[in-house]
Amino acid sequence: MPAIAEPYRIKMVEPIRMTSRDERETAIRAAGYNTFLLRSDDVYIDLLTDSGTSAMSDRQWSALMLGDEAYAGARSFDHLVESVQESYGFPYVCPTHQGRGAEHLISKILIAPGQHVPGNMYFTTTRVHQELAGGTFHDVIIDEAHDPGSQHPFKGNVDLDKFQALIDQVGADNIAYINVAVTVNMAGGQPVSMANIRAVREICDRHGIIMWSDATRLAENAWFIKEREDGYAHRRVAEIAKEMLSHFDGITMSGKKDCLVNIGGFLAMRDKRVLTKARELVVVYEGMPTYGGLAGRDLDAMAVGLREALDDDYLTHRIGQVRYLGERLREAGVPIVEPIGGHAVFIDAAAFLDHLSQDELPAQTLAAEIFLDSGVRTMERGIVSAGRDTAGNNRHPKLELVRLTIPRRVYTNSHMDVVAESVIRVFERRKDIRGLQFVYEPPTLRFFTSRFEPLPAPIEETATKEVVEPEFATAAP
Ligand SMILES: *Cc1c(COP(=O)(O)O)cnc(C)c1O
């Protein structure tokens, strides 16, 4: 593969701190071995999430200065609407403070209590809002999405048979809408094909079902269509994205991903009645319909960012960088989820630490070990994230993963080299790594705030040790 350099020059820099092993040991102990509880100042390279962590361009920063902060009728809103109309093809837009604000409103508008909402794998905030509105979520993604080894090129696709089976079972009238995510975050940033979107549309048309998209990573999805689907190789990503969106009645958008901003979101749609309802609700929950909980300058930055994210060269580098990291790991024998997705590399922690049982928290342990090695922050997506079932037992998810999420336009491939070398170093001494156990567990969304400590060493080992390590409990929170 030819080298792909960053398609930008660096005009402003943010220094980051390199730390010693001693400092990192103190930091991870104080954080209860949970990377969510680390202070950003103690992190060298931050791969916790790609959400709201993008670097804005000089054009976005310029647009920010031109923001119109009028309470009502600000021209910043007009700029966003023009941008959405031009790039996404939807006539109507309702801004919200971020993606979940849009999910909240559309769930209230489209779901009558008792109705069903199919989708291609759940997303945390999406499903919560559907359930709060009285809906029941149904996963209709293809089976390959749940298999980390499957090489299917469009692992995000809707399984048409599962969708049809749900219609047959509950009746089209009881389906509020179908929500198609592009790409699918929880499946590892896997794309949906144009053919699949068209086929879902046909089923929807036949049954009079509304079709919305969680379009959070639509630009990355369009790039994969260009790369992998017949007939799209010579089209511009911006055109492909517009064609994709032409099949949907509307979208919810988290601007924190493919609009390249640090905060923001919106709903966009074709049906004026939905817009009217959204405007009635947005004033209650977010703000006036022309700002939706954002500052005028945020709308301007988003209007510019959503265009920039559809640039072919930007995306080729963006996805190329994720792939670059993934391929370096794969070449060293590190087990990862394949194919490598659009926004993150997922390490198969169960295979990486195959001497640990799932109850010894392999992914949580690996995330802590990577931080200890180099100051690189990653995220657990395994048994800790899965939480407990209604009976109070730990859920044991099929996938036990560590996510290395790449922020957009923030790091260079030299940073990726540092990350890869660190993971490979940890891989080489994996047999010496002991698991973790909970010392504090909150009742819900436990991955955010749980605290852990290393499992005690086997008896023979502790017996020969002169100094016992100071207990984690003595560290300040
Ligand atoms: C981030 C995200 C959301 C929610 O967006 P926020 O801006 O974080 O509220 C919804 N869906 C997907 C797939 C996401 O990744």
Brief write-up:
Helices cover 40% and strands 12% of the residues.
Provide an overview of this structure.
- The protein is of the alpha/beta class and 477 residues long.
- The protein has 2 domains: 21-50 and 312-454, Aspartate Aminotransferase, domain 1 (Alpha-Beta Complex), CATH 3.90.1150.10; 58-308, Aspartate Aminotransferase, domain 2 (3-Layer(aba) Sandwich).
- Helix content is 40%, strand content 12%.
- The chain is built from 18 helices and 14 strands.
- Helix 5 links the parallel strand 3 and strand 4 (136-139).
- Residues 467-477 have low confidence and may be disordered.
- Residues 51, 98-100, 123, 125-126, 181, 185, 214, 216, 254, 256, 265 line the site of pyridoxal-5'-phosphate.
Task: Summarize this structure as a short list of keywords or feature phrases.
5-stranded mixed β-sheet, 2 domains, single chain, 12% strand, Aspartate Aminotransferase, domain 1, Aspartate Aminotransferase, domain 2, 3-stranded antiparallel β-sheet, binds pyridoxal-5'-phosphate
